[in-house]
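Researcher: We're teaching a course module on how sequence relates to structure. For the next exercise, students receive a sequence and then see the predicted structure as C-alpha cells, so they can try to spot secondary structure elements on their own. Here is the exercise chain.
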Amino acid sequence: MKALAKHALSRVFALALALAPGFTQVSALAQNQPAFTQQQLDQMLAPIALYPDPLLSQMLMASTYPLEVVEAARWSKAHPGLKGDDAVRAVAQQSWDPSVKSLVAFPQVLAWMDENLDWTRNLGDAFLAQEPQVMETVQTLRQRAQAAGTLRSDDRNRVVSEAGAIAVVPASPQIIYVPYYDPRVVYGPWWWPAYPPVYWRPWPDYYARPGYATGFYWGPGIGISAGFFFGAVDWHRRHVRVEHVNNYYYKTVIVNRQNAGDARSAPVNRGPGTWQHDPSHRKGTAYRDPERQRRFGAWRTERAEPRREGPQAGAPRADARPAQVQPQPKSAVRPEPSRTGPPPAQIPPVARQPRRDADAHHEPGGPAIGRRPEDKDHDRRERRRD
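Model: And here is the predicted structure for the students to work with:
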C-alpha cells in the first residue's frame, strides 16, 4: 500500500511541475512533442474503445483535466461505499468539471485513471489535439473486435451498426455495466508488435461469465438516474457532443469573457452542441500540443490576475486625476466634529501669549496691521506685569 501511494504521489508531482508560473521551458517542450502516431493511438485506446459510448465520451472529456481526476479519485478512495448517483450527489459542491464529477459514479474507472496518470494525460492530450483521429481509431478497434466475434450485443450492452459506424449503448439506460476485457485477446492478433496494447488486470469482483465473449469480464451493474450522461458521440462527424443538459450535476451555462480572439476570453458553452474544453479546470497543467498550449496556456495569467468585470465599488475612475495631498502644519489640523450629539464647546484663546506672538502682527519698524483697541490694553498690561 505504501509503495502504491508513493508511486501515485510521484505521478501527482510530475503533473504539478506544470503549475509553475514560468512556462517558457514547458512551452518549448510542447513544441518538441510530435503528434501521437497511429501505433500509439491504437495502443492507448485499446482498453476503452469497447466501452459504452456515453461513458467513453465523458472519460475522454475528463482526461483533459488530469489534476481534477486525481482529486476526484482521492475523494472516491476516501468514500469506498459510494458509487452511482449517490457518489455524484455527494460531490455536488466540488469545483471539478462535470465530466470529472460524473466519474465518481464508477470508482473502478476513476481509480485506473488515477493510478495511470501518464496514460490519462496522454489520452486527454490526444483527444484535444487529434479528436477526429481518436474517434476514427475507436471505430477501427471496434471493427476489429466485431470481426473477431468478441464485440456483440448481450443483455448488458447493445452493439448497433449504422452508416459505417459502430455504436455501443447500454441495454438499460439506468444500469451501466462497465466491461473489463483483455485487449490482447478481443481484437485478435495484435498488429503492432512494437506497440502492445495497454493492459491491466481485471478489477475485484469481476469474472468471466458463461455465454459471453472470450476475454470479457463483468462486475455488478451501477444504477444511475435517467439522463445521467450529458455526453454522446457523433460518429459521423467524429467528435464528442453535449446532448443531455440540466440534470442535477450539469447545467446549461454560457460564460462570456472579454477580448474576443483571446483564448482566455473564448466563451465556454455549457449548452447542447460540440463539447468545448474549459482551460480553467486544467489547473495549469501544460498541453502537449503547441497549438493548445498557445490557445489555452494563457489562462494561467488570467487566473493569477483576475479580470475585473464592470465598475467596482470604490474603484477610481479611469480618467480621474490622483488627489494631491498637501502637507499641513500641526496647528492647522483640527479634530473632526462629531456627527452625533451637540458640537464641541469652543475653547477660548489663551490670554497670556509670548511676546514674539504679539509682535507677529507687524513687521519691525512698520505700521501695525489690524490692531484692535483691546490689543493695546493687553500690551499695556503685559508691560506693567513685566
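Model: If you want an answer key for the exercise: Residues 36-276 form one domain. The first strand starts at residue 157 and ends at 162.
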